[in-house]
Amino acid sequence: MGSMGDDDMPYTDVLLVGAGFASFTLLNRLRKMGLDVKIFEKGAASGGIWYWNCYPGARVDSDTPIYQLFDKELWEDFTFRERYAGWQELRRYFKHIEKKWNVDEHTEFNKHVDGAVFDEKKHQWVVECSDGTYIACRWFIPCIGFAARRYTPPVPGLSEFKGDTYHTAVWPQHGVNLRGKRVAQIGTGASGIQVIQEIGPVVKNLTVYQRTPNYCLPMNQRPLDPKEEEQKKANGDYEKAFNDTRKTFSGFTYDFVEKNTFDDSPEDREKFYHKLLVEQGGFHYWLNTYKDMLFDQKANDEAYKFWRNSVVKRVKNPEKQKLLAPEVPPHPWGTKRPSLEQRIYEVFDQDNIEIIDVNENPIEAVEATGLRTKKGLVEVDALVLATGFDSVTGSLAQLAIKSTNGGTIADHWKDRLQTSMGIAIPGYPNMFFLYGPQAPTAFSNGPSCTQFQAEFVEEAIKRARAEDITRFEATKEAEDDWCKRMNEKWDITLFPLAKSWYSGANIPGKRVEPLNWAGGMVEYTTSLHGSLDNNFQGWHTDKLKA
Ligand code: N01
């Protein structure tokens, strides 16, 4: 960073990295305060994850109306067409925001931030981009989400494959025609399930290499009637839904019920499960269920049993039944992210689909024409890697953002993941990050989490400016306290019993620890705002000396 501190360096009050929900809501809030705000986005268009997620079937798993910014200016003249929006519609929505809020005026696309260093004399960040340019800013706010670093497992011989290889996280923007092809796919997470459901019916054959079955839930997708949605808006239903998200554990409109699993008789429990799983669909079976489901193994076993029965009824092939819904659950129900499906079990059951359990039959090698296990070589034309991300921490840790104490964020996290309230890090003054580690992030509806964090950032900057504070930094004590609370919340749940990307266990060699705040949205936002109201408790605040 040779040119740090140059007087002719471009300057902006706020630099937001990434052009998704988080940066758009911040842009609108902060420029209303008279601040000069810029967005740098490495992709060619806005949408954040919805720019990259364009694989067949990519679709969100939060329902309308809460998967959007809760701003009347935006929702009054945009109506989603389905209960769960697909990637094309989400891109249409981002275009709507761009137009309505003149986002382009503030945004540079194809602009990749590499790193940053803090100038102690000026209380500014100097940010370096991969095109060799620099910009200075008072506030530096990465909004790059939890899935900005894709993961490809070290399968031997991957580069030997002569067919086409596609990773779901960087699917070609122009699309891929897999009709009539022989396809192999590794991975059955949220992305993998959606791809299988979409391509299964059109490919010649599909071999799925599964490590862990996904406990999928019926999406109960349906088209939305525009007139009915307008009526809901007029009745105040949208505003009510947005307000409800503030009161729940995960920023959805519903929450765990105030009952334990065995408070109900077996008959009532069956009825209740049926209502959640079959009638309501979506995440109701996960987040609107008995309050002990994610804490008590026996309660969890009941939930698994009911879910398993529902799957077994849909899969006729007995071998596939065992692979998709084993009698003994490999991990407690709901401790890995369940995917929402529309017809996945019928598709899995098709004769042109084979499931290979890689625990029994590890992939020995990828060869020029296909994948080899001890069962032999499966020849394919294309290979889909639906193998996910170095989730939650990988996004920020890959950037060369220097601490004022020396080292990078990756160095700061060498011995343990540590942040203050999942929004700031000691040694990183005037920097906040949204939808990242140690926040409700992956346990929440994305727009809820980002907007509630944005409200905090807006308020913190407002108060800092009102008091001429130019250096605003989390304290070490606040960070230690948050880490302690992170572990306390996590340890009492069943989540530690799953090998999941929620805890880093999906990446060989990555330390296993809680990556997301498991204490719920309400306690989270109360902690954030409490720190400001309590005379900046947990923050060092300084002014520039004249
Ligand atoms: O990634 P994943 P994803 N050999 O990590 C498997 C959000 N999202 O891209 O479960 C064989 O979930 C791995 O196996 P295992 C959403 O929050 C949302 O699907 O670790 N298999 C797993 O099956 C989501 O949860 C939407 O044992 C290997 C898969 O690869 C998150 O992003 C859509 C392997 C990876 O699944 C991530 O989803 C898409 C190996 N060596 C994404 N290594 C919606 O809104 C890994 N796997 C719906």
Automatic annotation (TrEMBL):
<protein>
    <recommendedName>
        <fullName>FAD/NAD(P)-binding domain-containing protein</fullName>
    </recommendedName>
</protein>
<dbReference type="Pfam" id="PF07992">
    <property type="entry name" value="Pyr_redox_2"/>
</dbReference>
<dbReference type="InterPro" id="IPR050775">
    <property type="entry name" value="FAD-binding_Monooxygenases"/>
</dbReference>
<dbReference type="GO" id="GO:0004497">
    <property type="term" value="F:monooxygenase activity"/>
</dbReference>
<keyword id="KW-0285">Flavoprotein</keyword>
<keyword id="KW-0503">Monooxygenase</keyword>
<comment type="similarity">
    <text>Belongs to the FAD-binding monooxygenase family.</text>
</comment>
<dbReference type="InterPro" id="IPR023753">
    <property type="entry name" value="FAD/NAD-binding_dom"/>
</dbReference>
<keyword id="KW-0274">FAD</keyword>
<feature type="domain" description="FAD/NAD(P)-binding">
    <location>
        <begin position="13"/>
        <end position="234"/>
    </location>
</feature>
<keyword id="KW-0560">Oxidoreductase</keyword>
<keyword id="KW-0521">NADP</keyword>
<dbReference type="InterPro" id="IPR036188">
    <property type="entry name" value="FAD/NAD-bd_sf"/>
</dbReference>
